[in-house]
C-alpha cells in the first residue's frame, strides 16, 4: 500500500464509535465482486474457496451481466460512488436497495462525475450521470442479483465469522476503547489517531459525528472508507486472514437440511438481528413468514421471545447458539 488512512478521533467521537455486529449486505456485494478478480496470493483460504464456488454460479447469464455492470461502476482499487453503499443497508438488503433507488439526483450526478475524474467510465454511465432513474434501478437490481446468487448461498458463514469478530472486540472492550482499537490489524492506535495502510494518503476527521466500523467477510487487503467527507464516517475493515468461520459452508448446508433453508437463515440472522421486522428486512422475506418460522424455532427450544416496549425481541437459547456453532450435542440437550 502506497498511503495511509488516518482517522483523528476527538473526545466527542469516542462517545459515538459503533462496532457493527453483522456484515453489511451492499458493502459485501461490491467487495465480493472484487474478490472475483483479486490475485489468489492476496486472498485467505476461505475467500479462495468462496470464489471457486461463486465462479460456477456466474455462468448464468443474468448474474454475469449484473457482475459486468457493477464492475464497470465499482472496480477494485479505484474510487467508486458512495451511493452504492448507503448507510441504510445496515438495516438489511431491502432497506439498502430502497435507499439506493431513492438517491437524490444531485448526489447521483456528483458521484458518477467524480468517478469519471478518476478513470474512464463506459459510455452507459453517462446516462447515470444525467440522473437516469431507470438505469439506477438497473444498478440496484444488479446488486440484488449478485447478493442473491453469489453471496446468499453462504451468507451464514459470513454472518457467523463477522459475529465472532464482533465478540472478540467486545471482550477487548473490558480494557477500554483504546484496547479495542489496539486489538486488531491492520489498524494501529496512537491516541487520538487510528491508522491503517491505504491505497492513498487519506485523513478522516469525524468532527464529533463518531465512527462506524464494519467488519467485512470479503474485504481482504486494506480498509475501505466512505469517500464523501460530508457523509457519516464509515470504515469497512478486513477480518484477520485466518479468522475462524464458525460452522462453515458444510455445516450451513447440514443445518438447512435439518431445519429447512429459511428457518436456518432466520436462526443464523438472530445471532445479530433481534426483531421480526429486522430479520424480514435483512433476509428479504415476508414478516408473516418469518413470524411463522420463529414460532417453530421457539417451540423447538432454539429461540426465546420477550416483549420489550412496543416490540418483541428474539434471542437464541444456548441450544440454538450451540446448534449454529456446529455442536451436535445441542440437538439432544
In short:
The chain is of the alpha/beta class. It contains 15 helices and ten strands. A hairpin with a 2-residue loop joins β9 and β10.
Structure description:
The structure is a single chain. The strands form three sheets. A four-stranded mixed sheet has the order 3-4-1-5, with no helix packed on it. It has a four-stranded mixed sheet with strand order 2-6-8-7. It is an alpha/beta fold. β3 (188-190) and β4 (193-198) form a beta hairpin. Helix content is 49%, strand content 14%. α4 (61-73) crosses α8, α11 (248-259) crosses α12 and α13 crosses α14. The longest helix has 19 residues, at 133-151. It is globular and about 55 Å long. Residues 327-333 have low confidence and may be disordered.
Strand residues, percent: 5-15%
Which strand order do you get reading across the main beta sheet? 3-4-1-5
Tell me about the largest β-sheet: 4 strands, mixed
Count up the helices: 15
Calculate Rg over CA atoms: 20 Å
Portion in helices: 40-55%
Question: Residue-averaged pLDDT, rounded?
Answer: 87
Identify the overall geometry.
globular
Helix-strand makeup class: alpha/beta
For the terminal residues, how far apart are their CA atoms? 50 Å
Number of strands: 10
**Run of helices and strands:** EHEHHHHHHHHHEEEEEEHHHHEEH
